[in-house]
Design brief:
Elements: H1 40-46, H2 51-68, E1 73-77, H3 80-83, H4 87-95, E2 101-105, H5 106-118, H6 125-129, H7 138-154, H8 159-169, H9 179-186, E3 190-193, H10 209-227, E4 235-239, H11 244-258, E5 267-272, H12 277-285, E6 293-298, H13 301-318
Parallel strand pairs: 1-2, 1-4, 2-3, 4-5, 5-6
Length: 320
């Protein structure tokens, strides 16, 4: 015999499930996809109308609506986007006039340059760190720092514009894989935002802190102007930058609003393999708190970026 009291459930009152408000119904379930009879957009529509699958579909339509209404679509990106082979997808979105501006950290610019110039990028950091050779690649440092030094003295171009122009003028062997060069050919801003000391070109003899800082500062001012156009339907997509670009974006947004741009009512989306504090707060939450909408979508870039791009292109094509 137990020594503890137990409640008597015979007095519990129940209510019909028909009176309950339920979060999920069969109408929200995934629909079966028939590739012989249905299009890619119908496959996307067949995803469950639940949680992130529903958010993904909404993001696709937000981007499509933004471009139909001639609102900006800004992609912010870290180096990982290039390292997992997604440059052709981003470049295609630029050429299709879907993405109207790119902001990248300077690690992404390094991978872009190495890809364009030598058709390869990304070293074994752990192995090369052992003997002090990590990041000490002559050609990478001489090209990037050389371009920045030249444009610092001879031009008012920013970091991204300078590298894009230099790669284009040099007819880099793999120019078609360069996001920086695509910005030049499509006449859209590709800005580069450096934090001095974070990148391999900063540790080489050719490094000039004044040039790097000035050209990155020019790009910050360009991004401030771009962000000023984020009014009533623009979209910001952040791919894989956990610190630099969320911080830069927040400052660019406050500058834009401070000088008189409305810059409200837009959509932000953070795509990453795991969700971090700064993108969640500085991209998804704070900038959209007055009439906008923010989304967080988690997944591998090498899957999510091509999937998103294909869905956007399909919905824009089919919607005319």
């Amino acid at each position: 015999m137990t020594r503890f009291k137990r409640i008597d459930l015979s007095s519990v009152k129940t209510t019909s499930i028909k009176k309950r408000t339920s979060k999920v119904g069969v109408q929200d379930f995934a629909q079966l996809y028939d590739p012989a009879r249905q299009s890619f957009s119908q496959f996307i529509d067949s995803l469950p109308a639940i949680l992130v699958a529903d958010d993904f579909k909404r993001v696709v339509h937000h981007v499509g609506d933004a471009r139909k209404n001639k609102k900006p679509v800004i992609v912010m990106m870290g180096a990982h986007v290039i390292k997992v082979g997604c440059s052709p997808v981003i470049i295609d979105l630029i050429k299709q006039n879907i993405v109207t501006a790119i902001a990248m950290n300077s690690a992404a610019a390094i991978h872009d340059v190495e890809t364009a110039m030598w058709g390869m990028t990304s070293e074994d950091v752990a192995e090369n760190l052992m003997d002090g050779s990590f990041g000490m690649w002559t050609e990478t440092g001489e090209f990037i720092n050389g371009v920045l030094n030249h444009y610092f003295k001879e031009s008012d171009a920013g970091y991204g514009e300078a590298l894009g122009e230099a790669l284009t003028k040099k007819s880099a062997p793999n120019l078609e894989y360069s996001i920086l060069a695509a910005g030049i050919s499509s006449n859209i801003p590709v800005t580069v935002h450096a934090a001095i000391g974070t990148d391999i070109v900063h540790q080489q003899p050719t490094m000039n802190g004044a040039a790097t800082g000035e050209l990155s500062f020019r790009d910050f001012r360009t991004l401030c102007d771009v962000v000023g156009g984020l009014t009533d339907g623009g979209v910001v997509l952040n791919f894989g930058s956990a610190v630099i670009l969320p911080e830069v974006f927040l400052k660019a947004l406050t500058v834009a609003r401070n000088v008189g741009h409305k810059a409200k009512g837009f959509v932000t989306v953070n795509f990453d393999m795991i969700q971090h504090y700064r993108p969640r707060v500085n991209v998804v939450q704070r900038p959209t708190q007055d009439g906008g909408k923010g989304y967080s979508i988690t997944g591998h870039h090498e899957i999510m970026i091509p999937l998103l791009a294909a869905a956007i292109k399909d919905v824009m094509y089919n919607d005319g």
